[in-house]
Amino acid sequence: MATIIGIDKIGFYSPEYYLDLTDLATARQVDPAKYKIGIGQDQMAVLPADQDIVTMAANAAAQILDQADRQQIDLLIFATESGIDQSKAAALYLQELLQINHQARAFEIKEACYGATAGLQIAYDHLAAHPTSQKVLVVGADVARYGIATAGEVTQGAGAVALLITRQPRLLGLQQPTAYYSEEIMDFWRPNYRDTALADGKFSTAQYLRFLDLTWQAYRAKTGTQLTDLTAVLFHIPFTKLGLKGLRQLTTDLAAATKESYFDYFQQATGYNRQVGNLYTGSLYLSLLSLLDQQQLAAGSKIGLYSYGSGAVAEFFTAVVQPNYQQTLQVACHQQQLHQRQRLTVAEYEQFFMQTGLTDDHDFQIKRQSPHADFYFAGQTDQRRIYQRKEPVK
């Protein structure tokens, strides 16, 4: 049997609080249709003070890792643009919380929303180059913050996606080659002195679509793949309307009957994104999880994936659905997470927003606010972050 490298398991975590965007629209004196149709979002995850990128990543990864996985992982990659330290990698906190094998490389990578895809491709190359290596954990965890009553407010969110990469994966086999493109542009950025992002929205949308065309055409040239060879195409989803624009661009020349299938899959693939909001590095993979959880795909189906990170780097690649992949999914767990969240008022959301992004050098303690989370951020002592878990790792 030929060796396949790909995604064996996917874990997902989002905070236990959310804001309904109808409430936000009312508070901002905006027609709700502008948010729910014009932007394509229904709800927005809101981060409580007892969660950050480390705890969200740990809560996501703990869903999928057993003791054997923890011992067999020899590479841990943490992708984020919401870093908590200018020097120490969040991967090291995560390794300790999850009790992952210490005979492992552990580091953090950053390139806006592209980071998790960079981690995924590094994981592929690592397993291909090291026959004795067994498993790689890639996580993407972020908090999307633009500020209260700003243009980007409606596209905020928070959460983490964890990917276990192995040989002979049970979910998706990654295919090579891929196509990628990078160019220094100023469409979105966050200087060190800010805890909210800056963005040129219209310019960023134009670059997202331009990079999509460049990477798709390069992928076609490399592989001979036609759009109709792909069962579905998934996108980086900072908000669902942007991915929809990308799909419209790709399918312009297709007959109406052929287009319909791609748009049906897109709707299913953005179900979770509409409820959670922007995950930055995890957004593409949350969309992938939404599709896998909601749709029965035939083994051998080929899925196209478009990853984009402002600044900017983009990549187009494909993955093949594996036989009986449904047996590995945790659909009930994911749906329960979303169902058990607590709805906030706009005033409560604004209060939560002001609690995050702590930079004070004094000691402080944080009262636990996430009753269902296994891991949480408890505060700071001697300028050292303190993490705790509800129960010992099994």
Automatic annotation (TrEMBL):
The keyword Nucleotide-binding is annotated on this UniProt entry: no
Pfam hit, one: HMG_CoA_synt_N
Gene3D superfamilies: 3.40.47.10
SUPFAM superfamilies, A to Z: Thiolase-like
Residue ranges of every copy of the Hydroxymethylglutaryl-coenzyme A synthase C-terminal domain listed in the record: 249-355
Coiled-coil ranges from the UniProt annotation: none
InterPro entries xrefs: HMG_CoA_synt_C_dom, HMG_CoA_synth_N, HMG_CoA_synthase_prok, Thiolase-like
Keyword annotations: Acyltransferase, Transferase
Enzyme class: transferase
Family per similarity comment: Belongs to the thiolase-like superfamily. HMG-CoA synthase family.
UniProt-recorded name of the protein: Hydroxymethylglutaryl-CoA synthase
Natural source organism: Lapidilactobacillus gannanensis
